[in-house]
From TrEMBL:
This is Glycosyltransferase RgtA/B/C/D-like domain-containing protein. The chain crosses the membrane at residues 26-45, 98-118, 125-148, 154-180, 187-204, 260-277, 289-306, 312-330, 342-359. Keywords: Membrane, Transmembrane, Transmembrane helix. It comes from the Bacteria.
Length: 368
């Protein structure tokens, strides 16, 4: 009897089974491609691309960095230097060049992160993780504020994620770059990772507290030393809050919408986070819970005490959210299985919110 036919007992030969498996594999691959395209279209349609408010201010700072003339309360714009440094190396200038630079940086960061996820998880599960991140608040924030310095901060964060499985020296070196770019946000981001070591070590990475924190401080000191040497305007984000009762104003505006801001920090990912918190209450020690709770409160307050609440919360939790997406991906065989779960549909349908000055930004693509 030829291979690929049925035997006298009616059982398929190995060739026929292989054909069925190959067909099933191709159907799953086509299904995964269709799901990726559908989710990308859905995210773009419901969020919509938009340019960062006050773009001309960012371009003006980049044109003259590090000697840009800004008011002291806006001197923190001088302290996110990677974008201006690259911008000044380009042969062209202006708002269009500035926007294209930051958009290219975002795409490069996304591509680098996707390749790293493929290496860590394999292609099938990496697609799940990428789709989870596409529906996370960080994506909504970046799509709504194209041109903000976050593009280079995210690129630096991705570089940091890639070395967390390496030795302390390499972690220190990349942490210097991250601290040089955005010390305050990176400090919160690293602290969150260090507080949940089992959460990240399950994925084969080992953040090292001393090299990471030391690197952040060295990066910040190096930046401030350079800015001081060229006579740049001094200032910080704390000065922004201390000027003209700004902290009180922001706190007043945020209190009434605090729960909604909390929702916007993770969006549909709360469907996964709440069960994880419940598990932690049963498994973690009391001391660890107290420390984690303190950091969670400080993390949330850091978002509330800023004009761009959702953006700050999304940026400081970005590395942790990447690892959360990896954990979610590991629960499923591939993308077609993932989208069959109720939690996945909750994530897909959960409305994204981006708060700025206590008010949600308009979102979605509109005709015209």
């Amino acid at each position: 009897m030829n291979r690929g036919t049925l035997s006298s007992t009616g059982i398929a030969t190995s060739s026929a089974v292989d054909d069925i498996d190959d067909k099933d594999t191709w159907l799953r691959r086509l299904g995964s491609v269709a799901i990726v395209v559908a989710i990308a279209g859905w995210v773009l349609w419901r969020t919509g691309p938009a340019v960062v408010p006050h773009l001309q201010v960012f371009v003006g700072v980049a044109d003259m960095w590090p000697r840009s003339t800004v008011e002291p309360i806006f001197a923190y714009l001088l302290r996110v230097p990677l974008g201006p440094l690259v911008y000044q190396l380009l042969p062209y200038s202006g708002q269009r060049t500035y926007l294209v630079l930051h958009l290219v940086c975002l795409v490069a960061a996304g591509a680098l992160l996707a390749l790293w996820l493929v290496r860590r998880l394999g292609l099938r599960r990496a697609l799940i993780a990428c789709c989870v991140l596409a529906m996370a608040p960080i994506t909504a924030v970046q799509l709504n504020w194209i041109g903000i310095y976050d593009a280079f901060s995210i690129l630096a964060f991705v570089a940091l994620l890639m070395v967390l499985s390496r030795g302390p020296l390499l972690q220190f070196a990349v942490a210097v770059l991250v601290g040089f770019q955005n010390f305050e946000q990176s400090l919160f981001a690293v602290a969150i990772l260090l507080l949940v070591p089992a959460f990240v070590r399950d994925l084969g990475v080992k953040p090292r507290a001393v090299p990471l924190l030391a690197g952040l401080v060295v990066g910040k000191v190096a930046l401030e030393t350079y800015l001081g040497s060229v006579g740049a305007q001094s200032g910080s984000r704390l000065m922004f809050l201390a000027t003209d009762g700004k902290a009180r104003e922001l706190l007043t505006d945020s209190v009434s919408v605090g729960p909604i801001i909390a929702w916007s920090a993770l969006g549909g990912l709360w469907l996964y986070a709440i069960p994880a918190v419940r598990t932690a209450f049963h498994e973690w020690s009391r001391g660890r819970l107290v420390v984690a709770g303190f950091v969670a409160v400080v993390w949330f307050c850091s978002g509330v005490m800023s004009e761009d609440e959702t953006r700050v919360l999304a940026m400081t939790s970005f590395p942790a959210v990447v690892f959360a997406a990896m954990h979610i991906a590991n629960r499923h065989r591939d993308l077609t299985e993932f989208v069959r779960s109720p939690l996945a549909w909750g994530l897909i349908l959960a409305p994204p919110l981006v708060f700025w000055q206590g008010v949600p930004l308009p979102m979605g693509i509109t005709i015209g």
